[in-house]
Give the backbone structure.
Amino acid sequence: MSLPILAPEQSEYLLRVIEAAPQVCRRHQFFLWSQGDFQRWLPHKFSLCGIYDRGQRDVLFDLFNSLPVPDGMAEQLTNARSELMLAALAAWRAARYQACCLDLAAHDTLDPLWLALRSMGYQQLLVHGLTRPGRPNELEGFYVFAQPDLDYADGDIRALDMLLPFVHAAYQRVCLTERQMVAARVPVSGASPTGAPYQRTVPLTGREREILMWVRDGLSNQQISETLGISALTVKNHVQKILRKLGAANRAQAVAKAMTMNAFGSMSHTVGEAFF
């Protein structure tokens, strides 16, 4: 596939995405990196990132989403054996291991996950992957992107072709970094099985989640206080606790970390979409 001719502003977006990729080492950093200029190249509201785990001899998937998903859907989306994931993999192989689209409306199925995505406005999945060195039939990594009410065009497919090496390298670094962090925390006797995926906890109270939800929607402390009928000082104290619990430096980073943990679940407000 020949490389597309890029407009100057497109080249700038791509350059910034590439330059920022080596700094991505944690899940919240990966999520933030996949927004902004990355979105100008490849719009999506959720991505599924899978990488081969040699300990478990399988591809393990992780979900990054900027819109809440219903309870239970995150687990279904990250199931490598689901009907949806197997169809995405088959479409990619049929495309001779090139980036391609899986048309959700073109398949006659009663699979609950498939139907749920359709009901949420998802029409296509944009998929790509890469195989293990010297083993063309075995996956090294597999990536899925989706945006509601959007038909991906040829330009989006080419964009994923160009971005895949950087996406894979960044996500691979995330998995390695967090695996090392877990190993450093586990006693020598072993509190978790070797190769187990990084387990994320959501240490927020119900009130803290609610406040962080409004923060995600772009409300100030004063606006949140008026909405909830509490003082602005109380809101500020809650926000400070949220930052400490999530290890976040600011409000945007706290929201990003909560998103990667799926801390919001199916909670939603009527103000609108996330400010991402």
Notes: Confidence is low (pLDDT under 50) at residues 188-199, 266-276. Residues 223 and 232 are 8 Å apart (CA to CA). The chain has eleven helices and five strands. The domain at 206-260 is CATH 1.10.10.10 (Arc Repressor Mutant, subunit A).
